[in-house]
Amino acid sequence: MTAREVALCARDGLRIAATEWPGARDRAAVLCLPGICRTRLDFAALGARHAGRRRVVALDYIGHGDSARAADPARYRPEALIRDVLDAMAALHLHRVVLVGTSFGGLCAMAIGAMRPAALAAVALNDIGPEIAPAAREAVLDLIGRDPALASLDEAASWLRAHHPPLPGLDEEGWRAFTARTFAPGEDGRWHPRWDIRIGQQAIGAAAGKPPDLWAFFGALRRLPLMLVWGEASTLLTAATVAAMRAARPDMAVTALPGTGHAPSLHEAAAIAALDAFIAAQP
């Protein structure tokens, strides 16, 4: 099935970009939400694998990928981005979905579970839980806020490999592909992040304010099929938090990736096998 590009309007008129892979309408669709410094491009392989069997949609938040940039960076606050996701779900008739959420996308899943529980059929979390280690939060902020303006894709790949947490599942070509999903050439010919670098201060920085009780949000998923892809070397999602999540949800399937940091690319063989099986099991 050929993917199609979709453009939606947020409530304030800003453009939201999405990719849709058509599929059977009698099964729950898959909604893919990226991390705060990622885009919908991360889910192209997943969408292609499941196209035809069920509908798959991947979104770019405002300020990311091909979605519009906001004049006021306060527009990137988490509650505004989550509202955009809910509005996009309504516009695209995604009334009950299997939600695959990487990092911030997983936080969105928890919020949707609390706000509109009937909208979710199942949730797959990628390296995110109800506790975020403060040091890792600062590292994410540092990465989001940088525009190294690199001269070539190869130079960008070298820079990203040096600054990104470990992804041992990627070989040289894998890092180039991962980098091409992270940076894009600008009008100046240099490679820039595919997100507005002002995002971090609103999405997870001090301007976002004190975070809510994420354990209560995690609890909102209690009646749903749930799985976790966990990078065992992740400094954002610690082993102690994963253990607490397992205690709260003994039925949660966990795929642990040794030596992998935050966040797994979902191109790892173990992650692909676990995600595909989880999605296939949902009605």
Automatic annotation (TrEMBL):
Any single Pfam family the record assigns to this protein: Abhydrolase_6
Organism listed in the record: Neoroseomonas alkaliterrae
SUPFAM superfamilies, alphabetized: alpha/beta-Hydrolases
Highest rank taxon of the organism: Bacteria
PANTHER family in the cross-refs: HYDROLASE, PUTATIVE (AFU_ORTHOLOGUE AFUA_2G14860)-RELATED, MONOACYLGLYCEROL LIPASE
GO cellular component: membrane
Residue stretches making up the AB hydrolase-1 domain: 30-274
InterPro entries the UniProt entry points to: AB_hydrolase_1 (IPR000073), AB_hydrolase_fold (IPR029058), AB_hydrolase_sf (IPR050266)
Protein name: Pimeloyl-ACP methyl ester carboxylesterase
